[in-house]
Amino acid sequence: MELTNEERASRLAALNALLDLMRPSVQADGGDLVLVRCDVEAGVVEVQLQGACSSCAISSDTLQGGVTRILKDRLDWVREVIGGVDDSLDPESSSLLGTGGYVPRYRSQ
């Protein structure tokens, strides 16, 4: 079944709105969440984590447990989420972008 232009636009708008809701959490840790491509008819969405996410040990958990789960739960047409991490930054530059929300902090007593 082929979608109308209105249905395609509606799905894309809903996807972008949902990504915009998730992005501040990733940005708070010096990263970003970017839509790479989307096929609204096939239900395939490709996203990428950028910035400090490239040096974060839990970026794959963020993609699988967070982004993928939320997109599939809230957008019934999403069948597959392809996720990646932009690792073009070297680890030192990447880590300077954010501290990461899950990095334990040790206090000297």
Would you spell out the secondary-structure blueprint of this structure?
Elements: H1 5-27, E1 31-39, E2 44-51, H2 59-74, E3 80-85, H3 91-96
Parallel strand pairs: 2-3
Antiparallel strand pairs: 1-2
Explained architecture:
By secondary structure, the chain is an alpha+beta fold. It has a single domain, classed as Fe-S cluster assembly (FSCA) (GMP Synthetase, Chain A, domain 3). It contains 3 helices and 3 strands; from the N terminus they run αββαβα. It has a 3-stranded mixed sheet with strand order 1-2-3. Strand 2, helix 2 (59-74) and strand 3 form a beta-alpha-beta unit. The longest helix has 23 residues, at 5-27. Mean pLDDT is 80; it is low at 97-109.
Classify the helix fraction into a percent range.
40-55%
Q: Give me the secondary-structure category.
A: alpha+beta
Rounded average pLDDT: 80
What is the overall number of helices? 3
Low-pLDDT stretches are 97-109
Quaternary state of the chains: single chain
CATH superfamily: Fe-S cluster assembly (FSCA)
Beta percentage is 15-25%
Specify the CATH class. Alpha Beta
> How many strands, which pairing sense, and closed or not: the largest β-sheet?
3 strands, mixed
CATH-defined architecture: 2-Layer Sandwich
Shape: elongated
Radius of gyration from the alpha-carbon trace, in angstroms: 16 Å
Q: Could you give the order of the helices and strands?
A: HEEHEH
The total strand number stands at 3
Stated plainly, the CATH topology is called GMP Synthetase, Chain A, domain 3
The strand line-up of the biggest sheet is 1-2-3
